[in-house]
Amino acid sequence: MTDGINASVRNAAAGALSWSVGSVVARGRALFEAADVLEGSCTSTGIRNVVDAVRWYAGWADKFEAVGGTLNATPGPHRSETRPVALGTVLVFVPVAQTPLSAFADVVAPALVAGNGVVALFEEEPTAEERDALNLLAAGPLNAALAVHFGVSSRELPGLVVAPEVDAVAIAGGPPSLVEEVERASAETMVRTIVLAVDAGERGRYTPNRDSDPVLSLRRVLRFTEPRTIWRAASS
Amino acid sequence: MARKGEGLDYGAARARLDRSWIPDHVGSWIGGVHRVGDNATAVIAPSDGSVLATRHDASMRDLDDAIGAARSGLEAWRRAGPFERTRVLLRVAAELRARGDAFAAVEAVNVGKPIRLARSVEVPLAAAHFEYHAGWADKLEYATRGDAMPVGIWAQIVPWNFPLLLAAWKIAPALAAGNAVVMKPAESTPLTLHMLMDVLREAGLPDGVVNVVNGGAGLGAALVSHAGVDGVSFTGSTLVGKAVRRATAGSGKRLMLELGGNGASIVHDDAPMDQAVEGVVLGAFANQGQICCAPRRVLVQENVAEAFAAHLVQRMARLRVGDPLDRNTDVGPVHGVAHLEALRVTVEEAVARGAVAHAHPSALPSEGSWMAPTILTNVTGALRVAREEVFGPVLTLSTFRTPEEAVALANDTRFGLSASVWTTNGARAQWTAERVRAGVVWINGANRMSPSSPFGGVRESGFGREGGLHGLLDYVDVDGGDATGGSSRQGRAGEGEQ
């Protein structure tokens, strides 16, 4: 299993560059197209939710830089701007006890929109329909940027985050002990950890919602970016 | 025959240092009270090893008291309200400017920093950070697009290279967003923070909003691990940054790490050569190269490499190395004898493995910790001097053939703080800036800073931003569960969550 995931990570790292530095307009279109493909093949409510979330987030692709970036004042003959840029290669872990498709939609869609290469790891084995749908998504217009693996134990995660190509890990819920373990492992190579809201219970159930809130969903996209400040001399 | 101008030199132009500006005893500041303990150590001037002051380290009891004082300070600062917060921050900026000579001179002798850098960059920029954030303190609702609550009590740890500036750029946004602070300066450079505490009090900052504890690694570890701390902002080495991250794993504390860098300066064959030489030399050797975002690796296009290297070495040789208080000095002593030794070993190791060292020609003083600015050519990527952060007046030079190769070489590091690209081709500059993995990229420039420009790294240079809207938001707790990251903010702090 780990070998397969590491291969996906290397592929995602290779694909992430073109995905992130390519046009955000093309990125948005690829996501809309992926939603269309998925919609055409599946009818269950769970899949419908994924379709809706991918479309919702796809609409941010050509906007999040404008609202998440800044033009910075400078005292001299210079121009300075800050843009949100993708983290790079992101592992997204969806633990058992989450609703796999909701978690996928709430976490993977914003990570992709932000321009990251994503390797989604589900702890739970999904239903056959879910598996087919997610594989379809990863094989379609998003295939350079997305890989999906099922039945990945949380015990494997700390070992996976230290792979040199991994830039960030997102955990859609999970027990506090897992969060601590992953954060500690992430210190070695300064992998970014993004832990989505969890309830107070010991299983740390992730609470999906709020995707239809523009401000909160924008924040979710921006959590999968980091700011890059570019200065230009403005002299003759 | 002597060339015109040869043999002429500047006379010394020593800046005034009034002994009364230097505090004799530097202790903790807890709830507005200066606390001096038994644990005393000398604060040394790196230019001649003389004793400047006595530092008194905080005990664990002092640390607990400082956190307790910050808890009261947080409430007092909340009651002050946004408009009073703005007024206080503006008064701090004004007072820093008014006492600029004193702050600059004390910083220069304590750090070994040339007075020109202290007086014309560090002090004005520190003041500008307070001024910039004063303007945010009464406009936070705009910044956050919702309710804005302070994160709470911050543990802030600053290093020895820019003690005043880094204190300012951590304290100012924290205060603008309504937080309270317990700050630990570097053991060797506590003087200007001590002076800043006077300014903060006189500006009307309530007691306990900013507290200071002195001490070493043990105290720093206790501070970041303290249960009363809500956020940790650390500037320093990547090694210690990793320890801070492990210590806070699973704690839910907000974390900002501004760590090491190994910045590349990419010089294309169409670069404005004179500007590139000037920018690289001043960027690499300012503050003795002890700047985390300094250019450390020059990558120059092969067809212009020889001429560029010759100019670079020539310009470096014209830097004036000497007394930090002399206004003509470009380069002062490095930070301490142990630091000097480590730098020497790194350079010797590179030379033993084939690098060619071009050292600054001037004679160095025998007392203190002095190192000649050095450019290393014939450097291969495998050398430690190319891979690690060499925090001193050392610059490496290597070549590339294509823009793609330049980007690959620039990114061949685990760091990602800064980079610069020199070219007159605007499209190439943009192309490069989009591909170099760094938090800050300068096109035809180096080491530019402003309070409104977010500064910080990617990869092992850390995360979180200082300055600008993004930096401000790291100090704010935005409404709406997920937005604040639930149990963890590791790696993301609040930047960009607008």
Rg of chain B is 22 Å
Number of helices of chain B: 15
Q: In which order are the strands of the major sheet of chain B placed?
A: 14-15-16-13-12-17-18
Largest interface, with counts of residues having CB < 8 Å to the other chain, equals: A-B, 57 and 62 residues
Average pLDDT rating of chain B: 93
Helix residue percentage of chain A: 40-55%
In terms of DSSP E residues, the strand content of chain A is: 15-25%
Low-pLDDT stretches of chain B: 480-498
How many strands, which pairing sense, and closed or not: the largest β-sheet of chain A? 5 strands, parallel
What is the spatial order of strands in the main beta sheet of chain A? 5-4-3-6-7
Q: How does the helix and strand content of chain B classify structurally?
A: alpha/beta
Average predicted local confidence, pLDDT of chain A: 87
What is the oligomer described by this structure?
heterodimer
Mind summarizing the main beta sheet of chain B? 7 strands, mixed
Helix content of chain B: 25-40%
Rg over alpha carbons of chain A: 18 Å
Distance between the termini of chain A: 58 Å
Give start-end ranges of low-pLDDT stretches of chain A: none
Number of helices of chain A: 9
- Give the CA-CA distance, first to last residue of chain B: 66 Å
Tell me, what's the shape of chain B?
globular
